[in-house]
Prior knowledge:
With 141 residues, this protein is α+β, with helices and mostly antiparallel strands. It has helices at 36-40, 49-71, 109-122, 124-128; strands at 7-12, 19-24, 31-35, 78-88, 92-103, 134-140. Strand 4 and strand 5 form a beta hairpin.
Amino acid sequence: MAVTSESTTLWTGTLKEGSGTTRLDSSKVAEFPVNWKARSVGEAGTTNPEELLGAAHSACFSMALANILTSAGHAPESIQTTAAVTFEAGRGVLGSHLLVSARVPGITEAEFEAFADDAKANCPISKALAGIPITIEAELA
C-alpha cells in the first residue's frame, strides 16, 4: 500500500528578503519558519530545506538499518544517525554525510559496517538522492 505524505510551504516576498513557513500537513506535528538567511549562512530558530532533507535521510537510514540488522538476526538496541547535508548557493546540494553509532549485540565492527553500507545504498531516501554523493561513517557504540 502506498502512503502519500504532505507538507506545505507558504512563502512571501523575494528570495533574499522574503520568508515563509513549512507545515507538516500529514502528521500535523510541526510548522517551521524558513528563509534564505537560514539556508545560506545559518540562523538559529529557522530551518532550511537541507536540514529537513537531513532529517528525512537520517530517519529513513535508521529504519532501513534496523530492518536489515533484524532480518539478519541482529536486532539493534539503538541506532543514532546524523545526516549532514551540504548546500552551497549557486551550486545546490553537494552531498549528504551519515554519521552512525549503534548498539547491536553479537556482531563485529566489520559486519556492522557492511550492514550500514547496505542500508546507505538501499534506503528509499538514499535512492531519491542518487544525484549527490552520500558518504558514511558507521561504528558500534
